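sry for the spam today, last one i promise. struct tokens for design, 169 residues
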């Protein structure tokens, strides 16, 4: 069964007819040619497909496209449309927070989402003071980014990159 949907991906409007079983990840990669989000596990376990849906981080491999009609999708490619790097992207480069780079777009989108959550005062499982500002400690960043895996093990540089970007907000 097919359905017609509208969505914006990285600022560009799209109106498409899609099979109701199509994931948002497959729609972006196969129909729109946006290969920024990666297909890793295709089961929502690795985070390589992380994008921002209306500003909230989400696993696009688990999101059916038809359930996101009218949504604004932002991928790592769309974080800085004017050609300048987003502060998170800049921090990842400055801290050399990648090796093979496969997980990097998902890591970057997740980090942007993490920093937005912190700005809203959302606690995590390891947040010590629930009444004050959230400190971007190593444990806090690691907990919040735990849904994004890096097979190369670049966590030692990813965590400080997120902390740097958090200080640059």
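last one done:
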């Amino acid at each position: 069964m097919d359905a017609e949907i509208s969505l914006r991906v990285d600022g560009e409007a799209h109106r498409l007819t899609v099979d109701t079983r199509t994931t948002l990840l497959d729609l972006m990669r196969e129909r729109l040619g946006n290969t920024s989000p990666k297909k890793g596990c295709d089961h929502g376990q690795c985070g390589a497909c992380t994008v921002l849906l209306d500003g909230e981080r989400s696993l696009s491999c688990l999101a059916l496209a038809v359930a996101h009609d009218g949504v604004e999708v932002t991928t790592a490619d769309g974080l800085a449309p004017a050609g300048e790097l987003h502060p998170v992207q800049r921090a990842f480069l400055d801290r050399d927070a990648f090796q093979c780079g496969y997980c990097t777009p998902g890591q970057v989108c997740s980090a942007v989402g993490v920093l937005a959550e912190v700005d809203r005062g959302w606690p995590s499982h390891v947040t010590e003071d629930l009444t004050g500002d959230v400190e971007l400690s190593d444990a806090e960043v690691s907990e919040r980014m735990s849904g994004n895996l890096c097979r190369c093990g670049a966590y030692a540089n990813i965590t400080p990159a997120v902390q740097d970007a958090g200080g640059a907000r």
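The beta strands are 2-9, 12-19, 50-53, 56-59, 72-74. ok im logging off now
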